[in-house]
Amino acid sequence: MNLHRSWYVLSRELKLSPRSPLVFFAIAMPLLITFLVSSVFGSLFDVSPKLAVADLGNSEITAAAVHLDGVETTIVADVETLRRRVEAHDFDAGFVLPPGFDASIRAGEQPELEFYVSGASLASTRIILAVTTLDLVREIEGSEPPVTVVVTPVGNQDFVPISDRLLPTMVIYAVMIAAIFLPAASLVDEREKRTLDAVLVTPTRMSDVLVGKGTFAVVLAVILGFVTLALNGALAAQPLTMTLILFIGSVMLMLMGLTLGLWAKDITTMYTAIKGGGIIIFLPVIFTIFPGLPQWIPKLVPTYYFLQPIYDIAIHGDTLSDVVPELAIAVVVCIALVPLVVWVARRSERQLAMTV
Amino acid sequence: MTGSRIAAIIRKDFREFSRNRFFVFITLLVLVAYVAVFWFLPDSVDETVRIGVSNTILSTDVGGVTESGTAGFALEIYASEEELAAAVEEGRDGIVAGISFPPDFLESAAAGEASTVVLLVPAGLPAEIELLLEGAVAELAFGLAGVPPPVDPITEAVVLGTDRAGNQVSLQQQMRPLILILVLMVETFALSSLIAIEVQQRTAVAILATPVRIVDFLAAKGIFGIGLAFSEVVLLGLLIGAFAVNAPAVLMILLLGAVLVTGFGMIAGSYGRDFMGTLLVSMLFMIPLMIPAFGALFPGSSPTWVMALPTYGLVQALIRVTADGETWSQIAPSLLLLAAWGVATFVAGAFILRHRVATL
């Protein structure tokens, strides 16, 4: 291996990258995934009851409803809008406050409250919103309940909300596209277009090509992983530790990508292999999202050993020393992958020699 | 246009598609994975909040809430506060939180004297459940003290739309159309790759040097694309029980969906310069086309811009038939919208591909 020639391959990759749809894909996808996961899927799993209020008389209840914790309250203009949107299940329930409602309640009367529930809302959501509404009206009534409620936390309070549990999903996307897809597709593309043959008739050897392409993939993957963590506010004030972990993870995936790129006979085979094998690479993130699943299963997958440290540092506040055992296994996996890459590279070189 | 020429091109495309055994194997594997994921999803909706209580004070009907609970609210009784705390911590019996009443709660509340009730909450308890518990305890105490509620939103609520209480659409049912649409979308890429290869390797030129006319070529690509997408999605539909309700309507929707994605496949395949270019163009189409399907997972009506997307009719028609059991006449507007988009996209795809092949 010659570092000068590897640098030449790397600079060629850098020069060509602005024109490459693959690099654009590698950069755009993590940003898109971050947006989708954080804005769409986070709210998919974390749905608060939705309440609508049509206030026809400037009631104090409306202001109190807007400030409810755990209920999304929206003020709508009129009864017609409220009914239409509740029926469409834009809201789980809604109520109409007629003029003079507050005064009537304070006078000890029992005015009629139009309370609508969406047919598609859950029974539990209906009872939550009904009891909450009743509670709001009681506040206006001014009557204190003959009971004091004391909230006592029970058990392990180390709860991680779903939005945080989705962090590894975003990181694996960011790193995987750059570290696996990029070098694999680049190698297959060069083989298909025979530009690799052209490069190899010069003093440049296959090892120089692999180091150049691998370095480009790792640098891009680390940058994209870092940006993804930063966008999600998950650097946990340990940017250097995160960079180190991302580097180890990127190297691991890059070695897989090189193996795949050297093994796949064409781009369709490579894409299909990623489509099929992707589930194994992604397996740990499923177990992070659903912590109730048996947690020994993701430990069988190499990507666990860099995703878990990132998760532990970002979410649980661990430090580098806490995650050393996992990282050590990740490094061992990287070392174990090197002979595989060498073997596939030699096989590929022999095949290229036969076809030249 | 000649049938035999079209058939010959379709045979060639099918041979190329099936020649790569690895590709076929993985395609089947992915299909199996979709089916496995589908059957792994919960097929029912638990609409009940289960609460543990440490006392049997609710053995009598108090304000409509008894030991058996009420709609959406169920109670589990535990002998002591310690036992209740352990149950809350372990999530035993599906309880999400606990209420520990003091032994003299009934008497104190009835006398209007304030007593202290302890809410045992685990980490991560949604704020709305805490609101429910606090409100329920307060109402219980009010009821015992003989203070009637000023309003009654529980029993006097008006249900708007089809009342699905006790018969909610499960995640499995919600995901059924989404999975079918996902497979159709992936076929956009499969077809675009086949077309892109034909364009890149200029085999299209070779084919057109024979008596095959451009119209035969386009018809063959269209039929093969529709056939590929339709057969795969029908197979998947059979495996996930998509034809249990109004099968002819589901078949028609899937056929029109196949026409739609074939049109996009032809457009993407015409513009893709190489594999990655084709993938990128396909993704540019696939991402916005997936939005109506993902949007359907969320409750409520879709924003206007989502309704303008070509797959909106496809998603709506599929959901209305498979989840809501609607009839032909009820889904007619969505079906017409889908058909219009399908024909427009197919014609646009054929036109663009024709232009691309002509410039080779």
Q: How much strand of chain B?
A: 5-15%
Percentage of residues in helical conformation of chain A: 55-70%
- Mean pLDDT of chain A comes to 85
> What percent of the residues of chain B sit in helical stretches (DSSP H or I)?
55-70%
Short synopsis of the structure:
The complex is a heterodimer of chains A (356) and B (360). Chain A is of the alpha/beta class and 356 residues long.
Kindly list the characteristics that best describe this protein.
heterodimer, A: 356 residues, alpha/beta, abc type-2 transporter like fold, four-stranded mixed β-sheet, elongated, B: 360 residues, D-Maltodextrin-Binding Protein, domain 2, 2 domains, 13 helices, 5 strands
Outline the secondary-structure elements.
The complex is a heterodimer of chains A (356) and B (360).
Chain A: H1 3-16, H2 21-45, E1 50-55, H3 60-66, E2 72-76, H4 79-87, E3 93-97, H5 101-106, E4 114-118, H6 123-141, E5 147-154, H7 162-165, H8 167-192, H9 195-200, H10 206-231, H11 239-263, H12 267-289, H13 304-316, H14 320-355
Parallel strand pairs in A: 1-2, 1-3
Antiparallel strand pairs in A: 3-4
Chain B: H1 3-19, H2 21-40, E1 49-53, E2 73-77, H3 81-90, E3 97-100, H4 105-110, E4 115-122, H5 127-145, E5 158-160, H6 171-200, H7 203-208, H8 214-239, H9 247-271, H10 275-295, H11 304-307, H12 312-322, H13 328-358
Parallel strand pairs in B: 1-2, 1-3
Antiparallel strand pairs in B: 3-4
